[in-house]
Design goal:
By secondary structure, this protein is mainly alpha-helical. The protein has 23 helices and no strands. The longest helix has 39 residues, at 267-305. The model is unreliable at 115-123, 196-201 and 351-359 (pLDDT under 50).
């Protein structure tokens, strides 16, 4: 070979790498936009996954088919386990389903790649050309439409088209280099040397297995490796027998992403990543002997049912491996959980599976699925609101009983409110920088204000505790009438909080009338308390110390109601009136 041949090989490698890049970018564009479109449905699916292992497997399959990445699904599951939203048993079933869901990429690849080995020429229907046009149409929809839904569909079409363009580039590059009269024979001999046939040694099978494992670990995508394998098989460079071992290796390589993601997480999150690894390793061990011993017969069978189309043979083998692996191991989920517990041991003082180590519910891994992260943010804000309102109730109780013995408990709650304020706000900042839908962007924007409103409720409760200390110091007492009025106002605030919490937690506007009614009662009661205070002062029934606190208390309680009403109004920015 001369310098020209060497340069041709180098340029071919560049084109191959470019094809891989276009393929992976297309996968990312398609998956992220499909994830946005199915955000609420994904939350529903994950909720159902807690029912039983069959629903869990189905959930994992559907989610991975949507987001086109078993690694992303598994990383998401690791995040859920880390924050205690999911047990190891539930995680195991979703991980199994993810392995089945990821096989759809192999069928897309088989559809895109021409199979010269079987047909001897390019198929009459050029599928890749059609999808290249689809990519262009998707681009036009994205550029010229102002409707979010249309732009999202355009992005999906562009991403799907890019997948086919990337695969076509890989396939065409391999075809060009192998058809070269000088370079082609050299490449053929190289593949023959490592066993391009039905008879090869154990070490050769091990090399191919490790190749699949290492490439997937480096590229962080078994789909990309499968695409390369199918492109090579489509041009007759590798046999289905060789491809089997690379596919088995790639299934273990794909675990690396989850293992890396589990670094720094809770023990149970590490166990979830461990279950993913154990599941694939055991599956490979189950298949290793049959493929090694009866590989030629399996290859012949696949060749027969696929009509000699190597690309489809690989896709079917990939599906068969993951489906059979799941059918076998789904009955041993408890044992897989125990195995993960043996491998990843508890440390002294750590909590059990039902009691997650960390109560931080906004794991950064949720950012990979923004639609779910938004829903989880809402839950954390609800929790913050519950703590703030319970602290308000504690403050009122201390005031009415002239008892500051629970001041330390109140201070701990207030500290927790401030921590949640900082923690949730930081997460919302990260979430808002993600590629989220317009609706979710509006929600996140409103959440900032809601968190601020809740924090202010906590501050007003703190004021009430200060009033209590002042009353105790001055040995001042409220009259029975004043106490009755405070309790009445507290009752209206409690009613308002109940409806606001239900409305916000369920993003439901059906409570609007109840909220408006309760808020009006709070405003009216504040006015009543001011008038009653003036009358008691005029009648000499109120001491200056108690009167000063009473008036400030009325204003503070009314402002707490205002902040609750702000929270309720925030829902109107992203929820339709009749929804």
């Amino acid at each position: 070979m001369g310098i020209g041949d060497v340069l041709k090989i180098i340029y071919s490698v560049f084109y191959l790498l470019g094809g891989i890049a276009v393929f992976m970018i297309g996968m990312e564009i398609l998956s992220s936009n499909m994830e946005k479109a199915a955000g609420s449905k994904m939350r529903t699916l994950i909720g159902k996954a807690t029912k039983n292992k069959f629903l869990g497997i189905g959930t994992g399959t559907v989610i991975t088919a949507i987001i086109q990445s078993s690694s992303a699904t598994t990383v998401m599951v690791v995040g859920f386990v880390n924050i205690g939203l999911m047990t190891l048993t539930q995680a195991a079933s979703i991980i199994m389903g993810a392995n089945i869901g990821t096989t759809i990429t192999a069928f897309i690849t088989a559809l895109a790649v021409g199979d010269a080995a079987a047909t001897g020429n390019v198929a009459e229907l050029d599928v890749s050309a059609i999808f290249a046009l689809i990519a262009f149409l998707g681009l036009l929809m994205t550029l010229f439409s102002k409707v979010e839904r249309t732009k999202r569909i355009g992005n999906m079409l562009a991403g799907l088209g890019m997948i086919f363009i990337g695969l076509y580039t890989m396939d065409f590059t391999v075809s060009e280099i192998t058809s070269d009269p000088t370079i082609g024979p050299v490449i053929d001999n190289m593949f023959i040397a490592i066993g391009n046939g039905k008879e090869f040694l154990t070490w050769e099978a091990l090399v191919l297995f490790l190749l699949g494992h290492i490439l997937t670990g480096i590229m962080q995508s078994s789909s990309a490796v499968t695409g390369i394998v199918i492109a090579l098989a489509g041009r007759g460079l590798i046999s289905i027998y060789m491809a089997m071992f690379i596919v088995l290796g790639s299934n273990i390589g794909t675990c690396i992403t989850a293992l890396i993601s589990s670094i720094g997480t809770s023990t149970n999150a590490k166990r979830a990543a461990c279950i993913h690894l154990c599941f694939n390793v055991i599956g490979c061990l189950i298949f290793a002997i049959p493929v090694t011993v009866w590989g030629p017969q399996i290859a012949d069978f696949l060749n027969y049912i696929c009509g000699g189309r190597a690309t489809w043979e690989i896709a079917i083998f990939h599906l068969f491996f993951n489906a059979v692996n799941t059918l076998i191991l789904m009955w041993f989920i408890p044992q897989l959980v125990k195995l993960s517990q043996l491998i990843v041991r508890d440390k002294k003082g750590q909590k059990t599976e039902q009691q997650p180590e960390s109560d931080e519910q906004l794991d950064r891994r949720l950012l990979k699925t923004p639609a779910i992260a938004v829903g989880q943010s809402r839950k954390e804000i609800v929790k913050m609101g519950q703590i703030a309102f319970s602290n308000y109730k504690l403050a009122v109780s201390m005031l009415l009983n002239s008892d500051i013995s629970k001041k330390e408990e109140f201070a701990e709650n207030e500290k927790r409110i401030n921590e949640l304020n900082k923690y949730i706000t930081q997460f919302l900042v990260k979430l808002s920088s993600e590629d989220i839908s317009d609706t979710d962007e509006t929600k996140v924007s409103s959440f900032y204000h809601v968190v601020s409103d809740i924090e202010r409720i906590g501050d007003y409760a703190e004021n009430i505790v200060e009033y209590t200390e002042e009353m105790v110091k001055e040995n001042a007492k409220f009259s029975d009438t004043a106490v009755a009025e405070i309790k009445e106002m507290d009752g209206y605030l409690s009613e308002l909080y109940k409806y606001v919490e239900m409305a916000f937690a369920n993003h439901n506007l059906s409570y609007t009338q109840n909220i408006e009614s309760a808020e009006n009662e709070v405003d009216a009661m504040c006015a009543k308390m001011k008038e009653a205070h003036i009358q008691r002062t005029h009648d000499g029934l109120c001491t200056p110390e108690a009167g000063s606190v009473y008036l400030q208390l009325a204003v503070n309680m009314e402002r707490i109601g205002d902040h609750m009403n702000n929270i309720a109004n925030s829902i109107k920015t992203y929820v339709e009136p009749n929804s």
